[in-house]
Amino acid sequence: AQSVTQPDIHITVSEGASLELRCNYSYGATPYLFWYVQSPGQGLQLLLKYFSGDTLVQGIKGFEAEFKRSQSSFNLRKPSVHWSDAAEYFCAVGVDTGNQFYFGTGTSLTVIP
Amino acid sequence: KAGVTQTPRYLIKTRGQQVTLSCSPISGHRSVSWYQQTPGQGLQFLFEYFSETQRNKGNFPGRFSGRQFSNSRSEMNVSTLELGDSALYLCASSLDPGLSYNEQFFGPGTRLTVL
């Protein structure tokens, strides 16, 4: 069965520091991979997505993610975190048998001034 | 282009009651999915509708149901509410994926509190 694991429930970083949020998935075929961000009281906003091709994808707000098939991972990175990046981050796998997503449980990011 | 809208944004009900939530997708989007978000479980897929038909269903009891109208607007209904149904209910819309995959666009959610 498909599943998505985000091993870090909560991460705290200092403003200006680098960030890496981990995501591992379980899926038999090449997945469609997504990272979403959710600010308090808001819906989810797409940061970036991977369908095929270059395994390093660039997203909005300076985020990037790298697909590593051998590790079944799709980690999200940002070289320098801003206070406005404090939010909940969700990794998701899209399954090409219907329009269905599987989400991780999320990683809450706190940014210290 | 307007985003996904959900009404109402907040709702308070008591156990045993039923509730109906509404979702209007982005214009032109024909697929609507519903998710339940709780602090302990994250986002759980409820169901997906396309062209007025339920195409996918998650692992939720029959108290949770939905429908889609010809204009792609969707409603979900929860009957005989339980305390554990308190959650943020998110709606997401996307184009008909066809042979390729389309991203989902999320609404702001409806916060349901069951007392």
Note down, in words, how this protein is organized.
The complex is a heterodimer of chains A (113) and B (115). Chain A is mainly beta. Chain A has no helices and 12 strands. The termini of chain A are far apart. The mean pLDDT of chain A is 91. Chain B is mostly beta strands and 115 residues long. Chain B is 0% helix and 52% strand. In chain B, the strands form 2 sheets. In chain B, strands 2, 4, 5, 6, 9, 10 and 11 form a 7-stranded mixed β-sheet that branches. Chain B has a 4-stranded antiparallel β-sheet with strand order 1-3-8-7, with no helix packed on it. In chain B, a hairpin with a 3-residue loop joins strand 4 and strand 5. Classes of the chains: A mainly beta (113), B mainly beta (115). The interface between A and B is medium-sized, with 23 and 26 residues.
Task: Write the topology of this structure.
The complex is a heterodimer of chains A (113) and B (115).
Chain A: E1 3-5, E2 10-14, E3 19-21, E4 24-26, E5 32-38, E6 44-50, E7 56-58, E8 64-68, E9 73-78, E10 87-95, E11 100-103, E12 107-112
Parallel strand pairs in A: 2-12
Antiparallel strand pairs in A: 1-4, 3-9, 5-6, 5-10, 7-8, 8-9, 10-11, 10-12
Chain B: E1 5-7, E2 10-13, E3 19-24, E4 31-38, E5 42-50, E6 53-57, E7 64-68, E8 74-78, E9 87-94, E10 105-106, E11 110-114
Parallel strand pairs in B: 2-11
Antiparallel strand pairs in B: 1-3, 3-8, 4-5, 4-9, 5-6, 7-8, 9-10, 9-11
